[in-house]
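Hey, resending since the last one bounced:
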Amino acid sequence: MTMLVSFFLSFLKRMAVVVPVMWAVVTLVFLLIHLVPGDPVVMYLGDSARPEDIQALRHKHGLDLPLWQQYVRLWLGAPAKDGLDKHRGLLRGDLGETFGGKNVMKELLNRYPTTLKLAGAAMLVAVIVAIPLGIAAAVARGHWLDTAISVVSLGGIALPNFVIGPLAILIFAVYLDWLPVSGSERLEHFILPATTLGLAMAAILTRLVRSSVLEELGEDYVRTARAKGLPERVVLFKHVLKNSLIPVVTIIGLQFGIILTGAIVTETIFAMPGVGDLTVRAINEREYNQVQANLLAIALTYVAVNTLTDLLYRLLDPRIALDR
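The structure tokens again:
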């Protein structure tokens, strides 16, 4: 019962932080997108559009209102009248329509599963690659294998997605014809994008796992376990690895935000119909409502993942729950 109350209080504290963070994200995105020069209505209709058509579309989306009224409308919405589009506001889960008349939230929800699948697959690739390599580098400390893994890790950190992606397409899709270049319908469509997105994170995690395992190998409980005659395999995977994962979980939670932003580039390279690709299109077309919805969804996902990271802390080390 005490643990349940502690968890509930911790959740309330987290929500007390999340609310102002979300408000700040929405406000900053709103201000920044309105500070970008150029008229989005003219960009959508074209330079040859009639002035009355431009004014009508601007009025429909409330862009002829003062900035503060647009901000209030963003949160509280506005009824469908006087030619305005029906816009119930962010607090009701509705951000209106695009200039083409598409519902913003429906567009986002149609694309969101693809981005979540890509981010999850990229994290899986990173963990599968990083943990074995990190352990191997720690066990082989000072040997050629340790040096080789360190060099490969540095290469993974140095190479950005927009370099790895085209190279992967050229080798595995064009020359070898093993994997498809684009799409999101089948599992094989995610292999190249997830690998491209996950390698940079794997490089960071590999070095972290190595350092964490080396630190744990020097602890007293490891010497005690070895003195009892436990096999090295049991000492390493049952005792050392569990304690080594706590800082790794921390970095995974923090790096998830980088994976989501990296998905914007990766989805563009591999033509995947996800939130990243939708965001790039929305920015190019100055679709205010769509950009705001997409970035808010990314921010909410990042906060949710960090909250889950806190829960994993408690599972890996119950002492953390007592310290808070």
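The mean pLDDT is 81.

Sorry for the duplicate.
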